[in-house]
């Protein structure tokens, strides 16, 4: 199992070593080839492979084949619902005399949020002493907490310093280091893995009701990691459960996030008698509350009845969803494998392939709505901004309190529920702000809504945090803020200069040049181009090495545009800096992220400068004097397309994969496009307009 989220593969595959010699090292043969080096289950501490049937000498790798027994969508099929998918695998393990069945589901709760549902059933066909659920994640810290954020105390343990005595030291967990275990607990648990380099998190939620011990440990570095994590120990959680794990399977909800404020707020087990058959997962995304009943029974013949919530289901996998925004509510019924599903007065019968789905609009309870007006979870605002907060509060509630980073900033008892000029939300420069509205009704019942406001992960290294102005000169050591793998990539991960000492880019002692450059490194700069035009790009450098070699490539990586490739700089010898023009570039007005890719070693960089050479005809001035204007561009929420002096017949917008996301044939001079309604995610888009003469005109649109 590999898990991806927040623009990062957080639970990555171990990967192969670069050389054949490394593949014979104990770390590879005794760990990554063993069960403990992977995200799986170990039964009674003895799970292993055998040599007969193995493809490599003394590898002890042979095991029974895991079989895919159910999935929706199946391979190469389209999903029946864009928010749900699942796959179930079964292993009849004759080597270890056990059986295992695992279901992994990907569940979307909005265009930018979602979670993974992982149910792992396991049982020995002999004695069930204990099971260990093993999970690896990149990161710097592992936090094991109750759902209110209280850290569970841990103590050192040696329980994983053992093996079964075979040649390969199965199951491989002797490689676990710094192992610390909690006391047995049946409380609801959140495990959070913090990735400091990328300011992202992986959250692992467990419902209450099953006693387990959580061990956090470190293991060998993951070879398919990105950034600095390729050289860091991998975070590990091993969860031990006494007895069987078939009727009481492991059920975990994994949510990647860009802040510690997750959209998942709670999870509970669903039961058929004493058998765990799924989870109720409650999420909150801005003003939307989503309640999912994720049902996963042992097979498609099982019948589940949950009279308290009005659910009846015959089958293996299904989801019942209720979601409500400030003024609308919907119920979704989804059968991944089964025959029938009922939720209150709503029902669904599967088709002949045992699957089906329907979405029904239902009445929203407006008296108890709570939400934020014009704010969304994980919304980005410019650094240094001031923010006002307005709450939408239903008539059942008598007061509302606003919290910023858990600090009470005021209670209001009547409309309008608006908080302005708040010191905590003035000149905002922190990476994230947790904002919570807590409302109370006349009976003292409390509801709350939370969201996180972000300032950009990457921003210009300037005194006011605003982009570098172009035309203008920029020092190379003034690369963007944001950290490794976001604003720069550096191989050595060590900066001995007192200038920006917490960063990894190698800077000279006097803080004036970038030095000790290695092949594959890069630096990024956020720039603001005042005028569209043709610019000369000058670079001031010291190139010591000869003969000539390729040194620089210049691009806008977010826009998939490369301007200059494989630039060779003039050899200056040691101790001499030269300013030379490396090429001319056509730049569009607006904000862009500029990248210098560094292709080799043997040179140092001082500064670069864009000098306006000539004003180009703006892209939106067509030869027949027609004008196509798009503003604002780049945009966040919406934009306007204005067409003058032009008779047009077709207008389409495509993403970078060539998929059409918008079409209009009205011929109007002005069009207003809502990004959300058009389902346009962050990225580069192409506006294509066909005029009455049969000509096509294009323009780029950037959605942040």
Can you give a write-up of this model?
The protein is mainly β and 704 residues long. The chain has 4 domains: 3-264, Beta-galactosidase, Chain A, domain 5 (Distorted Sandwich); 366-454, Immunoglobulins (Immunoglobulin-like), CATH 2.60.40.10; 468-615, Sandwich (Jelly Rolls), CATH 2.60.120; 627-703, Sandwich (Immunoglobulin-like), CATH 2.60.40. The chain is built from 1 helix and 49 strands. The strands form 10 sheets. The protein has an 8-stranded antiparallel beta sheet, with no helix packed on it. Strands 17, 18, 19, 20, 21, 22, 23 and 24 form an 8-stranded antiparallel beta sheet that branches. It has a 6-stranded antiparallel beta sheet with strand order 3-8-15-14-11-10, with no helix packed on it. Strand 31 (432-441) and strand 32 (446-454) form a beta hairpin. The two termini are 31 Å apart. Residues 617-625 have low confidence and may be disordered.
